[in-house]
Design brief:
Protein name: VOC family protein
Number of helices: 3
CATH architecture: Roll
Number of strands: 16
Organism: Patulibacter brassicae
Radius of gyration: 17 Å
CATH class: Alpha Beta
Shape: globular
Number of domains: 1
């Protein structure tokens, strides 16, 4: 996936420097790309404005290594803490999703999540840092009307997995990869960062309605295409 940012240098320092992820080919002009498990996350520069793009992206980690992964993320940016029964707590429990997550905000204002999905057991290779990441798990897609967005995705063969589009939130896909569909300017959980529309390009596998050379526009500024064979 490729996201837009108005602070390309700071984002590069965060992903490549602080997190130490490996640079990989496929970067857009003026941007950069990093290997994220079996996926690729890239950023392209966006014009600086009063409403710079604010995206959400989740990386999947092994449940038994979430604490280690959280420490890796915390070394790059402060973890977002929520009130818990025993005080502020960075680990969020999602029982309906059988998952636990931690969150941080990048220098460009994007909300990055590390999510451990208990129904997807996985043993990471030896090592720390980026070795703890299985791949890309979620990306945010915003639109003025989430119900229309979900209907559009349904027409492409992508089914709603969770949520009520009428509420301004729905997750489309499955646990191996979700499009988090939200209403424009709705706050990205668990922050006060609004979902500011920005360019998003997502390459998906196993969606017959998509083709590598024929991007399909969905949402406010998002395009979907198939992985080349």
């Amino acid at each position: 996936m490729t996201l837009a940012t108005a602070r390309i240098q700071e984002e590069r320092a965060f992903w490549c420097g602080a997190l130490g992820l490996e640079r990989t080919p496929g970067a857009p002009d003026g941007g950069f790309a990093v290997a994220v498990g079996d996926g690729v996350l890239a950023f392209r520069p966006a014009p600086a404005s009063a409403a710079a793009p604010a995206h959400h992206v989740a990386l999947e980690v092994a449940p038994e290594r979430l604490v280690d992964a959280a420490a890796w993320l915390a070394a790059a940016a402060p973890l977002v803490e929520l009130d818990g029964p025993e005080g502020p707590e960075p680990i969020v429990d999602f029982p309906a999703w059988a998952a636990h997550s931690v969150y941080a905000v990048t220098p460009g204002g994007h909300v990055v999540e590390l999510i451990a999905r208990h129904r997807r057991p996985w043993t990471p290779p030896p090592g720390d840092g980026g070795a703890l990441v299985r791949g890309l798990s979620e990306v945010g897609v915003c639109a003025p009307d989430v119900a229309s967005l979900v209907d559009r995705l349904h027409g492409l063969g992508l089914e709603r997995w969770f949520g009520d589009p009428a509420s301004g939130f729905a997750a489309v896909g499955d646990e191996s990869g979700l499009l988090i569909c939200v209403r424009e300017w709705r706050h990205w959980f668990p922050t006060a960062r609004p979902a500011v529309p920005g360019s998003v390009s997502i390459v998906l596998e196993a969606v017959p309605a998509l083709h590598p050379e024929d991007p399909v526009a969905v949402g406010s500024a998002t395009e979907l295409r198939a992985l080349p064979t």
